[in-house]
Amino acid sequence: MAAFLYRMGRLAFRRRWTVALVWAAVLAVVGLAGMTAPEAEEEPFSMPGIESQEAFDLMEERFPGAAADGATARVVFVSPNGEKVTATENKKAVEAAIAELGDGTQVASTVDPYESGAVSEDGSTAYTTVTYKVDAAGLTDASRSHLTESLEHARASGLTVEAGGDAMEDMGGPSGTAEAIGVSVAAVVLLITFGSLAAAGLPLLTALIGVGISLFAITALAGPLGLTDTTSTVAIMLGLAVGIDYALFIVSRYREERAKGRTAQEAVALATGTAGSAVVFAGLTVVIALVGLSVVGIPMLTEMGLGAAGAVVVGVLIALTLVPAFLGFWPNAILTRKDRKARRAGGTPRETRKVNGGTRWASFVLRRPLPVLLAAVAGLGALALPMTDLQLGMPGDEAKSTETTQRRAYDALAEGFGPGFNGPLTVVVDAKGADDPKAAAETVSERIGGTEGVVSVSPAQFNESGDTAVFSVVPTTAPTGQETKDLVNTIRGDRPGIESEAGAAFEVTGTTAMNIDISEKVQSALVPYLLVVVGLAVILLLVVFRSILIPLKAAAGFLLSVLASLGAVVVVFQQGHGADLLGVETTGPIMSLMPIFLVGIVFGLAMDYEVFLVSRMREAYVHGERPAQAVTSGFRHSARVVVAAALIMIAVFSGFIGDSDAMIKMIGFGLASAVLLDAFVVRMAIVPAVLALLGERAWWLPKWLDRILPRVDVEGEALTRPTDPVVEPAEKNLART
Prior knowledge:
The protein is an alpha+beta fold. It is about 60% helix and about 5% strand.
């Protein structure tokens, strides 16, 4: 591996114009394809293999032509000062508002609350549902403006008027603020780390090129593959983070080799052969974790994982080819100002410092490995404790800010009609084989209506064929409450008896049931996913480090960091501690997909730091240093760069905390906290402490296993050679900026 990448780096250096032009052509072609691609149609959310999805699919089949995918707005009217919405003046105002709402060009229908019975028992609240002919993505600006203006006109009558539903969602694209924040902080970190504008700018430039290629590719494929905006956001997030980090490690190793007296070409080749090998295997662990999301069986997670994995692959390829090419254009500009002056004056390169912050920290841990290990594990364990209180769900309007009309509409409906009104269950009765379909549906309705925890059951609505009925069930409790989940399980548990009595089958669906089913599916898939991903990564690290204990230690450290980061997510987004600081006004259950998504991404990123840090220790150990000396050498060469890389990732992920999308906000916080804990606690404290306690045993590998494992030479043992001349004559004429 190292020898192959050595030749690749040298070739990219020598053929830098060709490499640069090839990447420019790729960016141009993919960019043109992305900009000219037709706009992707919004794909409905799908979750194969769960009852609520099967029931929804049955509804789509038996009720053809129904506006199931049409956008809706549920407008709530609350009377002022204890009045009733049935009072003459208030009723006129409500009816006028409904008439105005129905005048929209894309409106399919509106419902009169006085005729449909959509008035609360105390008469204080009424609501209407506005159904559109198109889905939320298809609503025009004129339709959205008409909706908001109609609400304002209704408020002028003195009524409190709020609206929820997908028609109220902001369909605007990403603002780019998160990316700008991440890039800005990354630039500052790189400048402090390298002390050179060129050295700081090169990783940023190559990472942005990689993100541009990935983003355009996803945009071009969005239509044919049905990719969502979330896929692009996650790809940008990870592509930017790993793109900067991978280039950072190549540039850092290049400067190190130049400081030893290597020529620019040789330094690029060695940097690509050694640090590049670590980049390849670090990238592979990330890709394994992301592609592994497909085993969960959730299309949305599969799309996000594959899109982000593609961005990581592009980042690795750019680090191995474009970065060496750019170093060929500016071989001396990347160096520190002191080194550039010395080279122009024909002096000798600066000696690499033997003692720095990394060596001092490593020495501290090596002197006290057990206390450091116990303190780190105890701290992560304490942070992981809130995980025991984890509640999964899919936050809706109740998780929005109280400043939004959607949240106020949610609260008004809960107050007027009860907490369960915002999360009704939908029951689909398949009476195709029943002798009397209407009697069968009535039996199912009566039995479910008599279940404890049910407030009301709506009249059944039949399809044109008369063989399928649908009715709504309103629980007594809120959609995200444990009692509602128990109710769904009770209804499904009573199904055999109900179906036997009715002579017809039924299934439970609706948003609330869908969220419950998703949570259960994700929880059941988490352990198999971990076994697949962690197992593959342990095998990969076994090949890289040729050790039994180091891969196991790496996996154990990952579990600690991911559990602690999930605990932090629970503390903020569920329990509400410090939520105001992040702009989270309302707490609730953690997004169902969050744990498995966080596990997938964090595992890959955690292995990044493991490979970068421990590969330098392995390199020193292979070249003859004792285990303790190898740990110190690894920290001397890698600690500063690993810290810079972690700070960059934290900055990139933290930028997404300001996103208005609750899912992206939660992912950004979870990833930022996970990188913080993994890089600074697990890799910087637990790793050296464990290696110090293990000593020679850390690098033990059975002889029979050593014989059958392939040799990849990540540490660059095959590249060891005498130091090259300080400066070649031709090199003096290269860039001197």
